Amino acid sequence: MLGALAPEEQRQVEAELNNDPALDSDLARLRARLDHMGFAEPPRAIDPPRGLADRTCDFVSAYSAPTITPAGALALQAAPQERRFTWSDFVTMAAIVVAAASLFFPALSYSRFHAQIDTCQNQLRLIGYALHEYSNRQPDHSFPAPDADGNRAAAGIVAPILVSHQLADSRMFLCPGSLVSRGVGTFRVPLPDELDAASGATLKGMLASMGGDYGYNMGYMDGGKLMPTRDARRAAFALAGDAPSNLQPRRVSANHRARGQNLLCEDGHVKFLSHLPSPQVLDDPYHNRDGWIAPGVDKDDAVLGASNDKPLPVMLISDGPR
Q: Which structural domain range is residue 129 located in?
């Protein structure tokens, strides 16, 4: 109503209004109240009082005219007292500092938040280039995917496969908006051979961290067999994105303060979704069509798993209504 939203926010509000008649009714009532209060009317121009400019100039001239003081009188004038810093001065200064901080810090936080989203999108684009290069090298144009069982049966195996083919490095799998503390200089994606040789707590630690801060497509089921996704350049099919979190409603990502997630689509573009489900991606990227955290039910059902999410056996994690 006031024209204060960004274009993307405006489109999201309009989509919600189209889907919910009750919201549209609330908006109409709010618009009527704003009209009654006069907020919807353009500000009226008011002419200044007649002669204001002349009176202002006369006032300034009177105070700026030089004052001539007899020399003898200078000795009789008392020395000006030094003005001390008073409590009212302190209160005024504190109010100015608080007002400036209330404007500066939210703007700084907003700018940092969007800078992290942009950096995350660049990381996912690099991962997308690596995934497509891997796919181009395969006879069936398949993407890397987890095995049905064994040490490589986890969604995060995508990262070790890309690193082992020299298509990526460990830094590409770190999101600047992640709540998990991973040092850029210390984080390392293990190679597939290292996973094969690991066991026990060592293997568990590798599986939990090998995918970094992102989630990866877990493939789909065909005739009871786990199949890797094949490149069809689909615009709304998720290949990778901010890792899902079992601690968040609807299993949305905890990256970016849980205010949304970046998704890498099969055609190579990256989009930020503030809400799920979204008109941009109708398919839930973190559950298959049956509502399970499992491979897709067919080749067009995209499901992203966190680093240590196993494709089989299927496990249901209760995360609220979908």
A: 112-305
